[in-house]
User: Fold Acetate--CoA ligase from Halostagnicola kamekurae.
Amino acid sequence: MTDENVDLEVRLEEQEAFEPPESFVEQANVSDEGIYEEFEENWPECWERAADMLEWDEEYDDVLVDDDAPFYEWFTGGQLNASANCLDRHVEAGRGDNVAIEWEGELGETRTYTYDDLLEEVEEFAATLRDLGVEEDDVVTLYLPMIPELPIAMLACARLGAPHSVVFAGFSADALATRMNSADSEYLVTCDGYYRRGDALDHIEKANEGLAGVDHEVSDVVVVDRLGDELEHSLSDNQHDYDDLVAEYAGASVEPVSRDAEDMLFLMYTSGTTGKPKGVKHTTGGYLSYAAWTSHAVLDIEADDTYWCSADIGWITGHSYIVYGPLALGTTSVMYEGTPDYPEKDRMWEIVEKNDVDIFYTAPTAIRAFMKWGAEYPQEHDLSSLRLLGTVGEPINPRAWKWYYKHIGNEECPIVDTWWQTETGGMMITTLPGIGTMKPGSAGPPLPGIDGRIVDVDGNRVESGNAGYLTVDQPWPGMLRTLYQNDDRFIEEYWSEYSDPDSDEWVYFPEDGAKIDDDGYITVLGRVDDVINVSGHRLGTMEIESAIVGVEGVAEAAVVGGDHEVKGEAVYVYAITEDGYEEGDELEERVVEGVLESIGPIAKPEEVIFTPELPKTRSGKIMRRLLEDIASGNELGNTSTLRNPEIVDDIAAQVDSD
Ligand code: 6R9
Assistant:
């Protein structure tokens, strides 16, 4: 490094606050600080600003109805269609030639869909689905990787008023079956396979295996042919080839179905405290307006931008910020099929350069990987088109933040560190890029209109400088409405901790710990429930545990998250063998296999530690914190409350020796 560079590194390392550059502020969608006060004073009417981002078939009567809290309703009486908002209105406004989706396959092939093209194919596929019998309110499951047919299918469902339930393609057959069963879903859209690091992966086999586990009749399955001759597959009687169907309906037009604002737009399953994934229900009016508003205010997206969110559409981030938010604003959304280091470690930067990407949104785990690979990869490319950077999914450590700021943003792009969840539908805590000072590591203040607080166990606000629990004390349009067909669990999971039902006070509890500073900036510390966050993906420890205790030879298991340099957290398994079974490689392999089968590769254990006992409190609870500390190599705290303190040293010694 030159002296100049060393100085720069030192300066950056010491700097704790960063101002958005003037050039950014001048053009920002939101740059008036008064917006915070304006929202506070006009709450809930302030949310009309979000609803105004959309085109309504029927104007709404009320912004918020809270008669039956926490079952809040937004924009009641209003009617709209999400696909019409993402497509038709841009075409009608003469912007049909604008590129909607710029898709890049892993092997380098590209597909460009203008808004005209996208509308055409969405209508064709909607006609197909309708002809197969899909009706309003039928849940259609989409088990597809990052290919254009995924957003096309989502928008085709939205056009018909049929909620979609996207299952991440990396999830296992079991996970697919569980989700289809839970949603009583009778339709599936999937594909033959896709590419990962240049290899053709069989996907249809997994889909078929999943279908075999569905407990009701599945009427139709549509299969996209992604791999062509690369993978021979046969279709059974109720399975149809996507291209054949769409060709049959070439040029079809399908009127978008007007949906009530509160009608379900989609279901998204996510991990929670128990072993069973939760079906988070999002609605048409509130969700879409919130996704559009936050895309406008936080991501600063404008119609003539090229915007790239590198998440997978199988997660909420992809739903809100690859598909619905950006397309509602009429922008160009880049979609990349593959892995960031294929064929080389500069793939992301090559895509940014080639497409003149203006705004880039990714996860801290990706940034840590880029950092590890080295600054020479981004340096090979001209990244000067970038105007704004964002992160989501997990806390970002200040070092990674600064690396991103310097090596990707060239110290010219603000960074928005956005805290939110599947359940919140869109961003909740982050600086506004044209207004707020940025503090690396801290997400920032709650967005205008969002009443985020940090409280102690009794629900009282903590003094600044202290840690506590994050709560949201007022509803917002993008919030989940319930857990699918399980209102009780909805109340129990999110509204039981800090609410006071007797006085009709409802407080949303996201299950995150956080601290707050003098300026009201919130640093999110991580989950306080049994959810771990591996590379920004939410996994329930109970889900993984139940997969492991299903493995022959395992008597008991505890799963915890341990620190990991790139993934943030990694899965550590502590397992007790059944009598008559031997600890060792063979059983370890079967444990790993069991996890892969029931969840998928994202949950793959980093380490399996066999132990004769698990550390337990006197009341018999597994001391997870202790197991986490062992996995992370931390100092072990007081173990005197344990029933079996001696076991801790035994386990720790084993982890050290591995
Ligand atoms: C969008 C998404 C939600 C959980 C959430 C929290 C963690 C997300 C974060 C963050 C710190 C951020 N999380 N963004 N933690 N800083 N900027 O990731 O949804 O998959 O439901 O995960 O992720 O723990 O509770 P989801």
In short: The first strand starts at residue 62 and ends at 65.
